[in-house]
Automatic annotation (TrEMBL):
Pfam families: B56 (PF01603). GO terms for cellular component: cytoplasm; protein phosphatase type 2A complex. GO terms for molecular function: protein phosphatase activator activity. It comes from Setaria italica. It is found in: Cytoplasm. Residues 27-37 have a biased composition (Polar residues). This is Serine/threonine protein phosphatase 2A regulatory subunit.
Length: 501
C-alpha cells in the first residue's frame, strides 16, 4: 500500500547544475532563414499550455525517458519514438514549448553502426533536427535561459558520446603515412552534422546572450569540446574548428582558459603521446587569435611561443600541421621583430639531421621568418644560422641543397646577407666551392655558381680573400691526407716484412 502511494508521488527534478554541458561546430556558408518558420521565444509569460518552460526543463525528455527505460547506448523501444507536430501546424503560442519537446526528443541516442536498425526512428530524429536548425536560424527574440539550457543539453547528449576504438591506435606512428591513409568516417555523421550545424548557428545567433549562455558553456564544456578535436573524422574537426573560434570570439571571459587548455593539449602531444588528429585545426584557430593580439605582446603570449609553438617542430609527424605552425610562428615575428632571434635559434635547436623532407620544410619556414627579420636581430643569430645553412648546401639530397640556395632569390634576405657578407661568406664559401666543382646534381651546381657570382660582384676583395683561404685549407688537408696515407703504407710494409720472417 505504501509503495503504491510513494510510486504516485512526483519524482524530484534533476538539478540543472548537475547536467553535463557540450558543444561543437564548423565553417559553412551563412544559413538562410526559412520563411515558413516563425519563432516567438519571448511569449513564455503568456503561455496557456500547461507544459510551460519551467515544467519542461525540470525533467526534459521525461516522456521519452519513460518509454525507453533501460536503454544505454541505443534506442531499442522503437514503438515509443514518434514524430512531433511540425512548427507550421501549431499556434505561435505553442511553438516555444514544442521547441523544447523536440530538443528533448533529439537527446535520444541510436546505434548508427548498424544501418538496418531503427531506420524509421533515425529518420524522424533527422527531420526533427532539421526543423530545430530552421527554428534557431529564424529566431526573432532573445533565447530565454530554459532554451539555452536545453540546447546545450541536447548538443551534449549527441556530441559527447563514448569513445570508439581507433583502428590505428596500436600502430607505430612512423609505420604508416597518415596523409595517405583513408580517414575514418563516423557512421553517425548524417545526424552529427545537423547537431553541429544547429550548435554553430546557436552560437552565432544575435539572439544568444553571451552573459546567459556562459553559465552552460563553461570550462567543463570547453574541455570536452576540445577533447573532440582528436576525432579521426576530418568533417567533425572542421566543424569543431569553426565552433571553437566562434566561442572564443563571443565569450571573452573564456579566452584565457581556452588558450591554456590548448597549450595543455600541445604539451601532452609534444612530450608524451605525439599522437593527436586535431593539431592542425587547433593551430589554425590560434593563427587567427595570434593575428589579433594587441601590441606590445604580453609575456604570456611570448611564453606560449617558446614553450609550445617552437617545440611543436620536434614530433616526427610535423608535416601534418607544419603549414599552420609556420603561419603562427611567422605572425609572432611580424608582430614583434625582436622575437626573430628566439624563433631562429629555436628552429636550429630542433633542426632535423636525417629527415630530408623535414629539412626542406624547415628551410621554407626559415625563409618566411627571415623575411620579417630586421638587421639587428639577424646579426644576433647569423653565425649559427649560416653554419646550418652551409651544412644544407653540402647535403647530398639535392632538394635540401636546392632549397637552401633558393634563399638568395629573396631580395630581403639577400640584402641582409650582403650587409653582413664579411661574416657570412667565410662560413659558406667552402660549401659553395665544393658544390660548383663536385655536386652530383646539375641544378645545385648552377645555383651555387649564381650565388658565388653574387658575392663576387658585391665584394671582389672579400671573395678573393675567401678563395685564397679556401685553397690554403684544401692544400693543408691534402698534405695531411698524403702524410696519413704514407704512414699507413709504411705500417703495411712493416707488417708484411715481419710476417715474411
Amino acid at each position: 500500500m505504501i509503495k503504491q502511494i510513494l510510486g504516485r508521488l512526483p519524482k524530484k527534478p534533476a538539478k540543472s547544475g548537475e547536467k553535463e554541458l557540450a558543444g561543437a561546430g564548423t565553417s559553412l556558408p551563412s544559413p538562410t532563414a526559412d520563411a515558413r518558420t516563425t519563432t516567438d521565444l519571448t511569449m513564455s509569460s503568456r503561455l496557456v499550455n500547461p507544459n510551460s518552460y519551467a515544467s519542461t526543463v525540470t525533467n526534459p525528455g521525461q516522456n521519452y525517458a519513460a518509454r525507453n527505460a533501460g536503454v544505454s547506448n541505443g534506442f531499442t523501444a522503437s514503438a515509443g519514438y514518434e514524430a512531433l507536430p511540425s512548427f507550421r501546424d501549431v499556434p505561435a503560442s505553442e511553438k516555444p514549448t514544442l521547441f523544447l519537446r523536440k530538443l528533448a526528443m533529439c537527446c535520444v541516442q541510436f546505434d548508427f553502426t548498424d544501418p538496418t536498425k531503427d531506420v524509421k526512428e533515425k529518420e524522424i530524429k533527422r527531420q526533427t533536427l532539421l526543423e530545430l536548425v530552421d527554428y534557431i536560424t529564424s529566431a526573432t527574440g532573445k533565447f530565454p535561459e530554459p532554451v539555452v539550457q536545453e540546447v546545450i543539453k541536447m548538443v551534449s547528449a549527441n556530441l559527447f558520446r563514448g569513445p570508439t576504438p581507433a583502428p590505428r591506435e596500436n600502430k607505430a606512428l612512423e609505420s604508416f603515412d597518415l596523409e595517405e591513409e583513408e580517414p575514418v568516417m563516423d557512421p553517425a555523421w548524417p545526424h552529427l552534422q545537423i547537431v553541429y550545424e544547429l550548435f554553430l548557428r546557436f552560437i552565432q545567433s544575435p539572439e544568444t546572450d553571451a552573459k546567459l549562455a556562459k553559465r552552460y558553456i563553461d570550462h567543463g564544456f570547453i574541455i570536452r569540446l576540445l577533447d573532440l578535436f582528436d576525432s579521426e573524422d576530418p568533417r567533425e574537426r572542421e566543424y569543431l574548428k569553426t565552433i571553437l573560434h566562434r566561442i572564443y570570439g563571443k565569450f571573452m571571459v573564456h579566452r584565457p582558459f581556452i588558450r591554456k587548455a590548448i597549450n595543455n593539449i600541445f604539451y601532452r602531444f609534444i612530450f608524451e603521446t605525439e599522437k593527436h588528429n586535431g593539431i592542425a585545426e587547433l593551430l589554425e584557430i590560434l593563427g587567427s587569435i595570434i593575428n589579433g593580439f594587441a601590441l606590445p605582446l604580453k609575456e604570456e603570449h611570448k611564453l606560449f611561443l617558446v614553450r609550445a609553438l617552437i617545440p611543436l617542430h620536434k614530433p616526427k609527424c610535423v608535416a601534418m600541421y607544419h603549414q599552420q605552425l609556420s603561419y603562427c610562428v611567422t605572425q609572432f615575428v611580424e608582430k614583434d621583430c625582436k622575437l626573430a632571434d628566439t624563433v631562429i635559434r629555436g628552429l636550429l635547436k630542433y633542426w632535423p639531421i636525417t629527415n630530408s623532407s623535414k629539412e626542406v620544410m624547415f628551410l621554407g619556414e626559415l625563409e618566411e621568418v627571415l623575411e620579417a627579420t630586421q638587421p639587428a636581430e639577424f646579426q644576433r643569430c647569423m653565425v649559427p644560422l649560416f653554419r646550418q645553412i652551409a651544412r644544407c648546401l653540402c647535403s647530398s639530397h639535392f632538394q635540401v641543397a636546392e632549397r637552401a640556395l633558393f634563399l638568395w632569390n629573396n631580395d630581403h634576405i639577400e640584402g641582409l646577407i650582403k650587409q653582413n657578407s664579411k661574416v657570412i661568406l667565410p662560413i659558406i664559401f667552402p660549401a659553395l666551392e665544393r658544390n660548383t666543382k663536385g655536386h652530383w646534381n646539375q641544378a645545385v651546381q648552377s645555383l651555387s655558381l649564381n650565388v658565388r657570382k653574387i658575392f663576387m660582384d658585391h665584394d671582389p676583395t672579400l671573395f678573393e680573400e675567401c678563395r685564397k683561404k679556401f685553397e690554403e685549407e684544401e692544400a693543408q688537408e691534402a698534405s695531411v691526407r698524403s702524410k696519413r696515407e704514407a704512414i699507413w703504407k709504411r705500417l703495411e710494409e712493416i707488417a708484411l716484412s715481419k710476417s715474411a720472417q
